[in-house]
Design goal:
Layout (H helix, E strand, L loop, with lengths): L1 E5 L4 H12 L3 E5 L16 H5 L2 E3 L6 H9 L3 E4 L6 H6 L1 H22 L3 E4 L28 H22 L5 E6 L2 E2 L10 H11 L3 E4 L5 E2 L2 E2 H13 L6 E4 L5 E2 H12 L5 E4 L1 H4 L9 E2 L4 H7 L7 H15 L11
Parallel strand pairs: 1-2, 1-4, 2-3, 4-5, 5-6, 6-11, 7-10, 8-13, 9-14
Antiparallel strand pairs: 9-12
Bound molecules: nicotinamide-adenine-dinucleotide.
């Protein structure tokens, strides 16, 4: 198949692109390289393989180019978005435009042309739901002041889900699948916009303090990108269109425990520093105390769930960072 992947140079995208390429598909990446980088593909593919992949360096809001790219393909994975705390709170109107208008545009084009589409929502759509684990049929609500910047990301994704579902209602043959990822990580993930794994490893290897927000007792589930991609591809292979799935790991860890493990494994002299994130993000931050997925529906449908342990993810990040570091920030500037 000829498959278009928007955001194909990002954390999830580069892993997905590599797998689809290796499975023999004709892969086209559509990415403005705002965050993603061509070098991210090198983690998964040889130089000769990368040369065979077409990369369109354009913005998804560029209607002419995205329309043409979609018209040329058999299927679309839409991953491009503005995400990461810093990115979201520093350019909120741009984020809302990219995440909502961009997704609506792509969904309209795919439905009009009868092209199957996978869109990425987010675990953030569960807002402040404090259930032990959240499931697809749970109510979606942000549960906080909607005038605080970080909620706008959740709202953009809820709007995407609503739009996709409205198209499904109006178009009984349309093929759209909605995915809610839970903290999907790979060592190439950028620290710049605030993701915690790269932020902690980078700080540990540079001897800087690991900034933990609040008391560090917030609990998260992390998901290894190749596991995520394996589940995603099975959902598509099984033609589970017109449905919504959580994809996430089955373990959880507090952020303070994570910081301590990173310091220990890297042998760093760094210290943990507890801080109020509102000082960093100009009052636009929201904390989710507990975010763990229920993945029963995923398992019921494809027979597997992501299984890489948090400890293995920590070890993989450590190997990657240990190889990159040479006592200067320069070598880590991309990560
Ligand atoms: N990684 C996670 O934990 C996670 C969690 C929840 C939801 N998601 C969703 O999954 C998708 C992929 O996430 P990721 O972690 O790979 O993100 P990422 O930031 O690593 O990758 C996103 C890619 O999209 C590109 N991009 C951004 N804006 C664009 C635009 N306007 N036009 C074209 N390209 C653009 C970036 O350059 C980047 O390569 C996103 O929709 C995100 O909201 C991810």
């Amino acid at each position: 198949m000829k498959i278009l992947i928007t955001g194909g140079l990002g954390t999830i995208g580069s892993c997905l692109v590599a797998k689809l390429y290796k499975d023999g598909h004709d892969v086209i990446i559509y990415d403005n390289m705002e965050i993603g980088n061509k070098n991210n593909l090198e983690v998964y593919l040889e130089e000769e393989q990368i040369k065979k992949i077409k990369i369109i360096r354009k913005d998804i809001l560029d209607k002419e180019h995205i329309s043409f790219a979609i018209s040329e393909c058999d299927m679309v994975y839409h991953l491009a978005a503005t995400l990461g705390t810093l990115n979201v709170v520093s350019q909120p109107s741009r984020m809302l435009n990219v995440n909502s208008m961009g997704t609506h545009l792509i969904a309209d084009l795919c439905v009009a042309k009868g092209i199957p589409l996978v869109i990425m929502s987010s675990s953030m759509v569960y807002g402040k739901n404090d259930k032990k684990s959240v499931t697809e049929s749970d109510d979606l609500f942000v549960g906080g002041n909607v005038n605080v910047g970080l909620w706008w990301y959740a709202i953009s994704k809820i709007a995407d889900e609503a739009y996709a579902n409205s198209l499904l209602l109006e178009n009984p043959d349309a093929k759209i699948m909605i995915i809610r990822p839970f903290n999907v990580i790979a060592p190439i993930q950028s620290h710049i916009v605030g993701f915690v794994f790269p932020r902690f490893f980078r700080a540990a290897y540079l001897g800087e303090s690991l900034k933990v927000y609040g008391d560090g007792n917030q609990r998260r589930t992390f998901t290894w990108a190749p596991d995520f991609v394996q589940c995603l591809l099975l959902l598509v292979e099984k033609n589970l269109w017109r449905r919504t799935f959580n994809i996430g790991g089955t373990e959880s860890i507090t952020i303070l425990e994570l910081a301590e493990k990173v310091i220990e494994i890297s042998g760093s002299s760094s210290q943990v520093s507890l801080m109020d994130p509102q000082d960093l993000f100009n009052g636009q931050f929201v904390e989710i105390p507990h975010r763990v997925p229920n993945v029963d529906y995923l398992k019921e449908n494809i027979g597997i769930v992501p299984t890489t342990t948090t400890q293995t993810m920590i070890e993989n990040f450590n190997s990657f960072y240990r190889n990159k570091i040479s006592k200067s920030d320069f070598d880590l500037s991309r990560y």
